[in-house]
Task: structure prediction
Amino acid sequence: MPPKDPELEKLKKELQDAIAKMQEEQKSKADTTMESALGDLADPPRCKPHIKKMCKGHLNKVNCVHFSGDSRHLVSGSLDGKLIIWDIYSGNKTQIIPLRSAWVMSVAFSPSGNFVGSGGMDNQCTIHDINNRDSSGAAKITRELLGYEGFLSSMRFLDDNNLITGSGDMKVLHWDLTTGKKITDYLGHSGDVATMSLSPDSSVFVTGSVDRTIKVWDLRDSKSCQQTFWGHNSDVNSVCFHPSGFAIGSGSEDKTARLWDMRSDQQVMEYKPPTANSGFTCCGLSKSGRLILCGSDDNTIHYWDTMKGTHLGTLQGHENRITSLAVSDSGLAFATCSWDMSVRVWGL
Result:
């Protein structure tokens, strides 16, 4: 092991002290805590998510899932080099899209359901038009976005012509898909960008990184990051916008999930499982915002009451690490995928 650099260690210590001081200042400005303010709030209706559909077809680890805007179709990406589009009502495959690289790490459906994007260790983003076929009969590639210096970790469509991507080169990029050119570079993270989520009105988006921060960006003002949240003690693996647009949920390698309030600019709740066995790889918020769900390295899904911080249960079914979780726009279901090569759709 190489010797520690004294200057680097000194800078780390100064940064940690500054963050701790900032968090103490934030807490001192709060006139109450969420727990005390909501002490007399009624418990949420009893809810036990259950498996509605088991989607099997991938031949290797499944790394990512995302719902179409119609809440009926779901795309999954696997290390078998395939994207599969599922009809979750029937559990059937509607399309299988072969990829040029098997190392897919992120997928996204456009809100219209006309396009899917994918990317990963090939350091590029590929857009497929699922309504048009090429000479082989597979969905036609309409755009390949190059220029990344690291793996593609996350992406979200604003509409059929605009895409936001996050990557291992610490960059967040806004692309015009009609020209294939970058519109904006969003710079601010000091580590790999790992996750991304759009606000309900698609005017703001949030990113999480291995630099342990969560950053909020406004598409109407791209000059700088609007907010930065500190508090996680390890990689931020997943972020999700609250349906209100005023809060953000997050899941981290530090074995906690958290809720951040954008208006008060601070963490308002921390969620821990009864036994913290492993870190959280993915998270999602229910349509009401009352439940937060987190997939874990230990093959389980934990869920809590976001308002009172109460752990409500643990869901089992997957046989290996859960890699991604997506909540449908309708709020009636969420999907998870795993290294056990399956995709599961759960009813809420």
